[in-house]
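Dear colleague,

Following up on Tuesday's group meeting, I ran the structure prediction for the two-component complex that the binding team flagged. I've pasted the input sequences exactly as they went in, so you can double-check that nothing got truncated or mislabelled along the way. The structure tokens for the whole assembly follow below. Feel free to forward this to whoever is handling the docking comparison.

Inputs:
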Amino acid sequence: MKFTERLRTTACIITGAALAAACGGGEPESAAPDQAGTAPAAADRVVVYSARAEHLIKPIFDRYTEETGVEVAYTTDKEQPLIQRLLAEGENTDADMLLTVDAGNLWYAAEQGVLRPIESQVLEQNVPDNLQDPQNRWFALSVRARTIVYSTERVDPRNLSGYAELADDEWQDRLCLRTSKKVYNQSLVAMLIARHGEERTEEIVRGWVDNLATDVFSNDTKLMEAILAGQCDVGVVNTYYFGRLQKERGTDLAMPMALHWPSGETGGVHINVSGGGVTKHAPRPEAAVALLEWLSSPAAQEMFAGLNLEFPANPAVPADPLVAAWGEFEASDMPVAQAGELQAAAVKLMDRAGYR
Amino acid sequence: MTATPLAVAVASLFSPDPAIWAHLAEHVLPRVLVNTLWLVLAVSALTAVIGASLAWLTAACEFPGRRFFNWALLLPLAVPGYVLAFALAGLFEYTGTVQTALRDAFGDGAGLPGLGARAASIVTLTLALFPYVYLISRHAFATQGVRGLEVAQSVGMTPAQGFRRVALPMARPWVAAGVALVAMETLADFGTVSVFNYDTFTTAIYQAWFSLFSLDAALQLASVLVLLVAVAVVTERRFRGRARFEAVGSGGGRRRLHLAPRAAWLATGYCSLVFLVAFLLPVLQLVAWTVQTFAAEFDPRYLAFAGRSVFLGLAAALVIVTLALLLAYAVRMRPEPLAAGFARAATLGYAIPGAVLAVGFFVAVVGLGDGITAAARALLGPGTAPVVLTGTVVTMLLAYAARFLAVGHGPVESAMQRIRPSLDDAARGMGVAGLRLLGRVHVPILGTGIATAALLVFVDVMKELPITLMTRPFGWDTLSVRVFQLTSEGHWERASVSALSIVLVGLIPVLLLNRRSG
């Protein structure tokens, strides 16, 4: 950026005299919304609101800029504030794309009408059907599995089956769970509701609570450390946290802890996604679609999933070797969007069952 | 201005969502109300006792290490509550440093008894927040002189009795101002209690919004919270009644009470213990994590993060202290209930959870921009570019003001009470009135009160998260934003690099304030 330009931007930011005409309006792509249709297609900038943390997106955006010359401006926040922000800004928003974590949040963003349907051959080809919105308002970019983790010293994996069976008496005082406030557990319970119905699911969750070895944990890593320290024997975590722990400890410090994949007969492994969509009032929709398509392409997918040890959403792309070493699994066939629809029911159910 | 987020919240009361309320009323509210009451009462009581006793010891007594503790006990201010929580958990939990060492040394059965979520939250918030009471009431003890205590001794009271029956009652507005801040901060806290999974009113607000997808229900809960706080504030005022707290001469200079050797060493031990648990141990834990992760985490952008944190802290301190002075002055000049009530209402934003306040503020500011745009288009034609007020530093500072006015107002207001009304009369007699009275007579006397307010605002803004996240201009990441980026993905150890930077930058104003107050 040239110095004078930088000076101007800084002055605009600080004085707050952000009349778009004076501050941003000089750039061709930020035409008034009623002229957006005629704005030049080749925008040199695209603006992203991201609930995915900065260190997981910056390297990818940097590469995109390198390859295409398009600058990616982004700001990060939690999902709900970002969605409220888009709602408040309405047609004056500067954001072209919303990137977020968890299918429930993507579903809610679409429900609130902040995303637009997009027709893209590339995205249809790269992202499987169950990992995208039926109305094409969002597409998954990475897949995370939430599965069972156990102590190899104290648990025989043949005794493990599905999530529901963790409510069995066998696991009395041996189970560790993360707080029900975390959306990952809400999605998991939503999946159980879809499979077993509310009544049976409430029984399962009550069984979990009865089996808890200690208070719920505030994060997955602490939960796994508790298993390693002998506080409990079995738990439920997102696999990338397991991978991160493996990486930190190095191969010569192999952990007495392993992942177990629930089989297809028990409903399969619960998966969730991170993904994105183009905002309804995007000033540069073509640039946003181009970025989304690029993110679903093999080169970007490897990096996008690899940075966080997740599974690529694009089935043509192999997972990171460390991730692939955990073996094949059968994912739940529930469309991920359904987790959003059932999330409120899941939260209420967990409150009733006393799962904090 | 500070009322806008409140208004947005209160407006939500008119559109209740019966299904969610029924669920909350049956399964959530009974428990979180009990939890919240426990937390607020215990933290208020403990911070009052610890904060006031430490303040009196360092301000009015002499004992080994007093000069060091005088400023060192302020240092915990610079440690965000959620960081303290994580560091203490990292030290004392089952998988933490201490218990792991115990098990390694004495076998699997060894360990500490678990505190439980309630006690852990109470202890952590007390350690994080007692400096508010300490800082504000230390000023009171330092300026009340030793004459009162000398009188107390002359009628045969021990130093402890003198503290309880003379010094403490004279310092009540200051202690109360500090405790009021602590109580509001505790009510609004989300980060600390969520480390321990302790469910409070605030976690219920977040649950309604983030998990049940009902911002309305969240806003409704927030307005109920504000009502409760308003009742508490009014009660405290009534309780304080018509007592006046002007200084009894400036007499006695800076003479201090010399404690007997045993009492003096007890005082030293007490101060050391608090300093150790609230600051030294957690910071050492942060340092240990920083050493592990520094190479992977640190990059030159940190200078920019720190620069923005400092800039925002300073600018916010300037804006908020100015507003607080004007507000306190207005109430002093026109002490009728309406003005006082208005001043109270303006500071209630501090008790609202930050993210809720941020959204309320954001919606209001966007609405204002849209209004201006509509007006401009009506006047200048439909093609006029939209006016966007968000994403500017000015908006950010206004949002900080809405949240932290209470922090600036408390110390300034209670210091203003120390100034005798006769001084105003004398100044007026010499033709000094209006804002010149404030600027030329009050401000110089209020020195330490103003410095206290500025320090509190500065460190609070440095630690603040939800407003910073939502209103910052593109690319304006700060140290606290960096902490958020990493902790939201569970990288607590890596986040210690930025957490430690916040602590280090926060030390600067603490040291400056100390030099100022000698």
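Chain B touches chain A through 67 residues (CB under 8 Å).

Cheers,
M.
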